[in-house]
Amino acid sequence: MGRWADGQWGGLGRRVLTPCPTVRLSACLLLLACGRPGNVPPPAPAGPDPALQARLEELVRGFRGDVGIYVRRLRSGQTAAIRADETFPTASMIKVPIMLATFDAIERGQLTFLQQLTYTDSLAYEDEEDLLATVRDSTQIALGKVAMLMLTLSDNTASLWLQHLSGTGVVINQWLAARGFDSTRVNSRTPGREEARRQYGWGQTTPREMAELLVRIREQRAVSPAADQEMYRFLTRSYWTGYALAGVPPWVQAASKQGAVRRSRSEVVLVNAPSGDYVFCIITKNQQDESWESVNEGWVLVRRVSGAIWNYFEPGGQWAPAEGAGRFKP
User: pTM of this prediction?
Assistant: First the structure.
């Protein structure tokens, strides 16, 4: 407790206590000694960060395939980019645009979050890992739970169902185009996108655009503040923590979506880091390693890039998963 000198009476009959000169001087000296609040270093100038760029280029050197990366620190505007505007397959990252279109349909009154949907066996996608495909025919399930399965477990049956309910790929692509996303598109089950599907699969994007989608949700500029807040909650509940999320301490919140097809691995992540939010997206294509184990070269690169970005922006303590953590990763 500091010493307080007699003050003056403030409005509404409250006594105003004024710190004595000695206390004021001590407080000023303490602030000068500590620097900025929380000992956070002043933000770097906005724009390309040469040191971070060099680190990323070092990490991708020698990779057997093509790599695109985009990184941006939201508070300072620091960036790093490798082929960030080149088109890559989305794989399951396309579920972010599907989610956006679904919540947009909810906002416009075409769907409701709690409405009961009737699942039928005809909706099942040929994927033995889909949880939704294991429920009984004619089961009632809330739309919000279908969305949870799509984002948390990356359930393909749930995703294709919501793609249809939100207006199909045609409507989703119109939503994206109207908001300035020129490269991100749904290809699967979308008329006129057959050639793009043969080249990129279910969807296509660039690292920069996919990262921007998460930024707009985080900043509540995507659909509506209420919808964006709920979508962000969904994105922070991923089951798939063994890839980019392994490079972030588990006590730090991160919104993410992963994707994988035979010759591509990808993930987009927005980290609510102690010294300020940052977003990054890494996508590979034309990989030589087509294996499905966690040691696939693409996933190894994703983990290394994620950890390098975290330790660059949060240099106070070098983070690494505990020994044996891989036993608990899907």
Answer: 0.86
